Amino acid sequence: QVQGTAGSSAVSKCSAAARGYIQDRFLRLLAGRRRRRAPLIHRGYYIRSRSVDHCVQHFLLKTQSYARTQILSLGAGFDSLYFRLKDMGLLHHTVVYEVDFPNVVCQKATLIKRMVELSALVEDTGGKGLGAIAFSGEDYKLLGVDLSELSELERALEEAGLDNEIPTLFIAEVVLTYMESSRSDALIQWAAEHFPQACFLLYEQVHPEDPFGRVMQQHFIQLNSALHSLAQYPDCEAQQKRFLGRGWTEVSVMDMNEFFTCCVPEDEQQRVQALEPFDEYEEWHLKCSHYFVLTASKGMEPSWAPLLPSVTVPHCAGPVGMAGSVSAAVCARLSGIPGLRRYGHHSVLIKPNMILTTGGFGEEDGQHCRMRNFHVLCKRAGSWKAGCVTKKNPDKTWGERLYHTVSCLSDSLALVVGGRTSPSSEGLGMLWLKFPETCDASDPDDIAVELVNLQPAAEPATLRWRHSTTEVTFKGEQYLFVYGGRSALEPVLGDWYFLHTRELSNTVIAVEGPVPESRHSHSACSWEGGVLITGGLGAAEQPLGSVFLLRKLEHGFQWQTVETHPPLIPRYSHTAHVHEGKLLLVGGVWFHASSVPGITVIDLMTGLCLDYVIDVEHLEWPLMLHNHSSVFLPDEKELLVIGGGGNCFSFGTHLNPEPVSLSLNSILLSH
């Protein structure tokens, strides 16, 4: 099973190369089968390839003055590293050794001999048959050895001509974690002890215990290729100590969010972000926070070691100080209702203790799909009940939308604004949802909703998604403040509209003050006649930590910054509510790898900002608090979280299986 990961990785890299993420004409020759992967997979393999190449080329550049150097790639699989470096003219005095299981290297050796484009770059000197050597060229050796058998590895490398006395780069790209920790530790220590001038490059997974990490771990367990390193070395700090304790003197480590921010030039970031329609930001950033690149060195010149810059993104540094915890409890009577397993949906309180949930992607009739059905959740006698809503007209009016908003404007009317089907399609417009003025909370299945299509009314304001719509009043008239988001043409929007709710027309109202940075996936709440905008993802795909108030004035509105202390940790894909002068932020995605966002409470009078962890001890499944919806019931100080989750890279789709109730009594009273 572990050997099978080499082929899967090669196919994914080949797909990324075919779409322009990676410049590599050799991958298609080595991958064997070809299969187009999703944009999220392309980005994941791009950053993996980019981080390894960054360190390898740095090593080669800085060792140009040496007469001879060597690279030892451990568990190389069907990687094309040697052929790329040779083609670029970077191997004038460097020999590349690749080691993997015997049957993997035999397949690779056969491919090299059969493919003219490969064999033209490396001349077979006929070393095959000498022990573990499957292929031997002047500057390329392919060895079949089980890495966990250290004595066999050492003997095979010696036979192949590896020189302990010259600068050596060891590469382990998602390899050591498949070995028992005692064996991988021994290999790390052996490399430090036997090579006086050496660097070690490690790329693998981290953070096994948070929700994404649990899904990741379970995926590899199901593949029968468990990640052994994670239990003993769960974070970057532990990995750093691992190498320092085994003979390496300089160690640098950063996760892939840090690497992308610090080591990939801005123009290259923009190039990659524009290659394909993309709308899985949460899963991209979570994937990046669960993989790291580490470089260790010893005996090398201090002017160029280590291979990574010793910089970190400021908001990634150090653990998040938590002021306390909030307990999460499953709503027992809502379990087992597939329609509530969804993400990218919207939930809104349409009557006291009655919630309407619409849209998103989730589980319906045993299949993962864009959700067509609406659901109503009703609370009666202290317990929740859910039912599927009857729609009075065809589904085509709805459009199976994700990342839309729903605003309840009266006892019988809600307005749907925006949303999308796929990231490459034009955004969807507006829709009225009409429901009875009086509904029987005891039987939510009997509630019917009528859909009324409103295209092409107010199109520029509504052809967007990941935006916000917030109710405001101005001079006695009711408006929806439509702000931010993104569209098929613009990856991030910073404009706004005042949508007159009676006429459904855009009204020009004066707005003063410095305009906030463009953003999507932010939160927006009504407060004191204005709007609070918090967080979001900016134009550079970086989370934002700003809080803005669109303050109501006599003649219009004014943008004002809300200062928080300590500063709010940048985040996006959260939800928000205001209660008695306190802004409550729920979940989201941030770049703080040490923890996941729980509940943040901001006192809007003093600016005091406190983070609370969500205690999930009583949940039997990972609680993913992004792409969720939440509804706050002020009388009970109860927060109901509905849905959430996403497509967890190549590890499968995780949908929070049932709604979760959070009691905020203790933290709201403590403020």
From TrEMBL:
<keyword id="KW-0808">Transferase</keyword>
<dbReference type="GO" id="GO:0030488">
    <property type="term" value="P:tRNA methylation"/>
</dbReference>
<dbReference type="Pfam" id="PF24681">
    <property type="entry name" value="Kelch_KLHDC2_KLHL20_DRC7"/>
</dbReference>
<dbReference type="InterPro" id="IPR007213">
    <property type="entry name" value="Ppm1/Ppm2/Tcmp"/>
</dbReference>
<protein>
    <recommendedName>
        <fullName>tRNA wybutosine-synthesizing protein 4</fullName>
        <ecNumber>2.1.1.290</ecNumber>
        <ecNumber>2.3.1.231</ecNumber>
    </recommendedName>
</protein>
<dbReference type="Pfam" id="PF04072">
    <property type="entry name" value="LCM"/>
</dbReference>
<dbReference type="InterPro" id="IPR029063">
    <property type="entry name" value="SAM-dependent_MTases_sf"/>
</dbReference>
<comment type="pathway">
    <text>tRNA modification; wybutosine-tRNA(Phe) biosynthesis.</text>
</comment>
<comment type="similarity">
    <text>Belongs to the methyltransferase superfamily. LCMT family.</text>
</comment>
<dbReference type="InterPro" id="IPR015915">
    <property type="entry name" value="Kelch-typ_b-propeller"/>
</dbReference>
<dbReference type="GO" id="GO:0008175">
    <property type="term" value="F:tRNA methyltransferase activity"/>
</dbReference>
<comment type="subunit">
    <text>Interacts with RNF144B/IBRDC2.</text>
</comment>
<dbReference type="InterPro" id="IPR011043">
    <property type="entry name" value="Gal_Oxase/kelch_b-propeller"/>
</dbReference>
<dbReference type="GO" id="GO:0031591">
    <property type="term" value="P:wybutosine biosynthetic process"/>
</dbReference>
<keyword id="KW-0949">S-adenosyl-L-methionine</keyword>
<keyword id="KW-0489">Methyltransferase</keyword>
<keyword id="KW-0819">tRNA processing</keyword>
<comment type="function">
    <text>Probable S-adenosyl-L-methionine-dependent methyltransferase that acts as a component of the wybutosine biosynthesis pathway. Wybutosine is a hyper modified guanosine with a tricyclic base found at the 3'-position adjacent to the anticodon of eukaryotic phenylalanine tRNA. May methylate the carboxyl group of leucine residues to form alpha-leucine ester residues.</text>
</comment>
